Description:
The protein is α/β, with parallel strands linked by helices. The chain contains 15 helices and 17 strands. The protein has helices at residues 16-26, 59-62, 71-83, 94-107, 118-133, 153-158, 162-165, 183-189, 213-226, 247-251, 304-319, 322-343, 369-372, 378-388, 411-427; strands at 38-42, 45-48, 53-56, 110-115, 140-144, 175-178, 194-200, 202-203, 209-210, 229-233, 265-268, 279-284, 348-354, 357-362, 391-392, 394-396, 400-403. The mean pLDDT is 97.
Amino acid sequence: MKDIVPAPPPVVRNDFANVQALFQRYVVPSYGRFDLAFVRGAGSELWDVHGRRYLDLGGGIAVNCLGHASPDLTAALIEQSRQLLHISNLYYHEPQGRLAQALVRRIGPGKVFFANSGGEANEGLYKLARRFGHDEGRFEILTAFNSFHGRTLAGIAATGQDKVKHGFEPMVPGFRHVPYNDLAAVRAALSPATVAVLIEGVQGEGGITPATPEYLLGLRALCDEKKLLLLMDGVQCGHFRTGRFQSFQRLLEGVPGSERFLPDGVSMAKSLGGGFPIGAFWVREPHADLLGPGMHATTYGGTPLACTVALKVLEVIERDGLEANARNLGAWLKAGLEQLAAEFPQVIVNVRGLGLMLGFELAPKERVPGLAGGAKPAAAQFVDLLHAAGVLTVPAGPQVVRLLPALNLTQAHAEEGLATIRSVAASVLRS
Ligand SMILES: *Cc1c(COP(=O)(O)O)cnc(C)c1O
C-alpha cells in the first residue's frame, strides 16, 4: 500500500530550527510564539532543546501549580492509568464523585459539573444562566471590560476585549460589557433581559486587576435584588493562586458583612489539574439541579484519570502547605517588586495582584530607553529580555508582565527571579 503522506524522518536532533520548521509546516499559526522549545522540567526549572536551564515563573499560565514533573502527579497518573483511564459519563466512578465533594467542601453547598478546559467550564455557566432565565425570557449576561473568558464562540462574545472578537463577527448574542470594579455601571446596564453577571475575581489577561471587596459585596446584593446569578470565572485566579482556594475568599478576608458571601457559580480549570487537562464549574445549592439529565454533557469531562490527578493536586497542596506558601512567598515577591518600582520608577510604574498572581506594569515604551526602539509592546519586549536572562514570565496585555509560578515555588527561586527582573529593569534604562 502506498502511503498518502510519506513517513517523516525520525527526529534525531531535537534542535530549535527543526522543531520550529515542523510547526511552520504543520501547525495552525494561531499563536505568536516565543523562540523557545522545551524538552523537560523539574519543579520550577525548565530545560530547552539546547540544554539551557530556565526559571519558570509563568507556570504554563497558572497551570503547573505543583511545578514540572511532580513525582506525586507522575505516580498518580501511572497508578490510575493501570486501573481505568476513561469511562463514559453514562456510568459512575468514585474519583469524579470524590473530586466534586472536595470542590464543594472548599467553596460551599452546591454541585459540580466537569469539563476539559476553562473555556468549556464557562460555556457551562452560560448555559446555566440561560436555563435559569429561560422561562422569563431572560438571557443576557453582563461581563467586564478587559475580562477574559476563553476562545470558544460564546467565550469571545463574553470576553470584554475587542482583540479576541475581530474577524469572528457576528458575536453570539446576549453579552454586554461594563467597566470592572464599577457597581453603578452594572446597575445602569441592567435590562429586562439580564440574567447574570460574570466577573473574574482577579482579572488575569486584562493585566492582574483584583476586584474590590465593595464591588463583590455590592454585586451580590444587586444580584439578589434583581434575581440575577453572580458568576465568577476562577479559571486563572482560583485554586489557591491568591493564597485561598478561590479569589473571593481571599479578597473578602476580614471584610465585615462578607461572612456569608457566595457566588452562584464558579468556573475552574488551569491549576485544577496541575497540567493534566480538566475544567469544572461549581453551582450553588438552590440552582444545582437546573441542568437536568440530557441538558449538558461532554465525553471527556471528569474522567477517572483527570479526577484522580486533580484529587492528588489538592492532597499535595494541603500536605505541603502550599496555600500558605502562595500567600507568604507571594507577599515577599510583591514587596520585592514594589521595591523595584521604587528603585526604577522610569521602568516599573505599578505592581498589582496577590498571592502568586502578580503583575508589574511598565512605563510607556517611548519613555524607556531600552524599549523605545523595539517593535513589540513593552511587556513582550521585557519578557523577551527576561528569557535571554533565563527567566520565563507571561505578558498580560501590552504593558503588564505577569508572574504565575508554581505554588511550591521556593524562596531561593523567588530570589533568583527577583534579581533577574532587577537586572533587566536596570538594563532597559540604557538604550
Ligand atoms: C485561561 C482562561 C480561560 C480559558 O481557559 P482555557 O482552558 O484556555 O479554555 C478562561 N478564563 C480565564 C480567566 C482564563 O484565564
